[in-house]
């Protein structure tokens, strides 16, 4: 299914969402970004989706970033609500209760890189390259790049990437923790990403939601606050139906049969 330059494929509990605008390197404008956010939210709320793979159509680009035609001739008063809306959409993806796995094929620049940084984690092909080149246009990242890249790769790396426009290749992305596995050949990327998604989908969905919530909250909280949240969520998991099934399956040496909803 393809609508508004966003294509969706479903395979059981796994959904693949593609930014489907290859003639312009899957560039994002506000309407496409809104559609992307809505689609991921809809899948996450469906009760049948346990993992989402986010990628771009073709091998040249995951997304080359913002559609510059939309930004032309905006003044500060017009630009501010556009940036706030984009940040809200990407924050919604970051807070998805269903894991979102970025499968990065080719370029992820500007808003495309910012989108990757908001996903639960990323896997990459050998052709992947990341960058925040906005300063070369007299701009700065506006969808969270100044904040998230520093948290993942450290402030010095973030400053260097943004101030010079230098790109991060696939191998360096893995070393920096932007990608969670070594790069694979382009033709192997989607099979690999789907294998990872299937592995995630075997886990208890309520446990996955709790893990995502705890990690996200902990990034902005003192350690003791994060530990208190972890204690509460862990206690709820111990008392929940998923752990009853999971422990029973472990003892019986069988695969657990978790319901989609806990």
From TrEMBL:
GO terms for biological process: fatty acid beta-oxidation. Transmembrane segments: none annotated. GO terms for molecular function: enoyl-CoA hydratase activity; isomerase activity. Its EC number is 4.2.1.17. Keywords: Isomerase, Lyase. It comes from the Bacteria. CDD domains: crotonase-like. It catalyses: a (3S)-3-hydroxyacyl-CoA = a (2E)-enoyl-CoA + H2O; a 4-saturated-(3S)-3-hydroxyacyl-CoA = a (3E)-enoyl-CoA + H2O. Belongs to the enoyl-CoA hydratase/isomerase family. This is enoyl-CoA hydratase. It comes from Amycolatopsis alkalitolerans.
